[in-house]
Amino acid sequence: MGRLVVVSNRVALPRRGEPTAGGLAVALKDVLKANGGLWFGWSGETLKGPTTGEVKAVRYQGIDYATTDLNETDYKGFYAGYSNNILWPLFHFRLGLLEYDRKQAAAYRRVNRDFAKALMPLLAPDDVIWIHDYQLIPMGAELRALGARQRIGFFLHIPFPPWAVFSALPGADMLLRDLLAYDLVGVQTKRDLAGLVNCMQDGLELDIDAGHGVTATNGGIQRRTQLSAHAIGIDTRSFATTARKAAFGPDAQRMKASMGDRQLIVGAERLDYTKGLPHRLRGFAALLANFPEHLNRVTYLQVAARSRNEVASYRDLRRELDQLAGRINGDYAEFDWSPVRYVARAVARDTLAGFYRAADVGLVTPLRDGMNLVAKEYVAAQDPTNPGVLILSSFAGAAETMDGALLVNPLDPEAMAEQLDRALKMPLEERRDRWSSMMRGLEEQTASRWAENFLAELEEQTLPAEPPAAWTAPAAVRN
Ligand code: ADQ
């Protein structure tokens, strides 16, 4: 394979003295090191004035990093606006939260084009390019419009809805057509693949061949785009080791001491409306109301790292959670017990791992989620001799393979309460059986394996013999 070029909206720049980042960054760094790679994307810096288009380059531990800045207008239009306030709710089936704005659509296109222009001079002919996630869907088409002939793959980390939902987006067909510039488009699950296939068929009226490929003509040349599902994983071994060590660390010890002999339920995520946090609190309240034997016997710890504060729906969510947690504690707390411990900030990775290991139940109930790595981390963190129980939303991508979890519909608080009661009372033997079947899967389906499999499939694709005379990027027609 030629040099690997990874493109993602945010680049995990190495910073001295900072702990290693999570699974995805580690997996990508591993494949980048193995292939002498380049990682390109936004620096995370926002400039006051116009962008200079300047690319900053650093080399660290065998990987080249190249980053570019955004200005405030592009940050608002491309990132906070179109990516997070339009595409994010759309892909998570939340059409009521989608606030369409044509200027933001133009900013999204413009930034993708600027990224393509900034990357183009850094590319060599036999590079393999791997673009990540919903912020950068048109970037492949923009690269092709500039003449890029390399293999280009795209992976979507979030769900892919069917056309009945996707078509709500003004210009939905153009975004789909952008995907046809890639040689391989990967999604997380079979359900997402079905959504993508359905969009290609019903939205673009294209045929899907027996091997899940779609062929379209652009610039007088036919290109086949392979569509496939590649479930992302975590670095299972290393997370298990971190959790084992963290169980003896000061944070986990303090936590255990404060619990006495009560049971612990844990939840952890970015504070995001897709994660179903209010529904989860209602489910826990239903446990206390319907199964009073758990009163003063169980504590629910929810760690929710604040995110996307500039988007109004996220601020509303914070208010709702503050109220709900306050009400449950007001209704049920005793002088020596608060049923809910709600921590609204990010905590260190090893601390989180220690909490997972200490918890009898991992409660992971998103309304929609591409995969959900917390579910995988919770299982990897368990003590094999006395594992906890995972309660998982059937709308998380992880539910497709984590067969040992207790599945739940997050919209049904009574059902969540029943599953919580079942988990808190589950005998050791059943817990072990459920845990080992999930752990076996996690040991096979790691983050590194995911990256290797995706890249192997990208490498297998046959490229068009001749370059398109002039690839037309969809929005180049429109703007
Ligand atoms: P996210 O939506 O960010 O990822 P997820 O997969 O659960 O969701 O990953 C979250 C990560 O953040 C986990 O590694 C977790 O440990 C960490 N984390 C959660 N809460 C934290 C807290 N309070 N403090 C510190 N760390 C915390 C997107 C998609 C997912 C998909 C991933 C990877 O939305 O569906 O699984 O990409 O493809």
Brief account:
The chain has 479 residues and is of the alpha/beta class. It has 17 helices and 15 strands.
Query: What is the first-to-last residue Cα distance?
Result: 36 Å
Number of helices: 17
Q: Helix fraction?
A: 40-55%
From the alpha carbons, calculate the radius of gyration and give it in angstroms. Answer: 23 Å
Total discrete domains: 2
Q: Bound small molecules, which ones?
A: adenosine-5'-diphosphate-glucose
Order of adjacent strands in the largest pleated sheet: 3-4-2-1-5-6-7-9-8
Mean of all residue-level pLDDT scores? 93
The CATH architecture classification of the largest domain is 3-Layer(aba) Sandwich
Largest sheet: 9 strands, mixed
Q: Let me know the CATH homologous superfamily of the largest domain.
A: Glycogen Phosphorylase B
Summarize the structure in words.
The chain is 43% helix and 19% strand. With 479 residues, it is α/β, with parallel strands linked by helices. It folds into two domains: 4-232 and 448-465, Rossmann fold; 237-444, Rossmann fold (3-Layer(aba) Sandwich). The strands form two sheets. The chain has a nine-stranded mixed sheet with strand order 3-4-2-1-5-6-7-9-8, with helices on both faces. The protein is globular. The model has no long low-confidence stretch (mean pLDDT 93). Adenosine-5'-diphosphate-glucose binds at residues 22, 24, 157-158, 232, 268-270, 303-305, 346-347, 352, 369-374, 377.
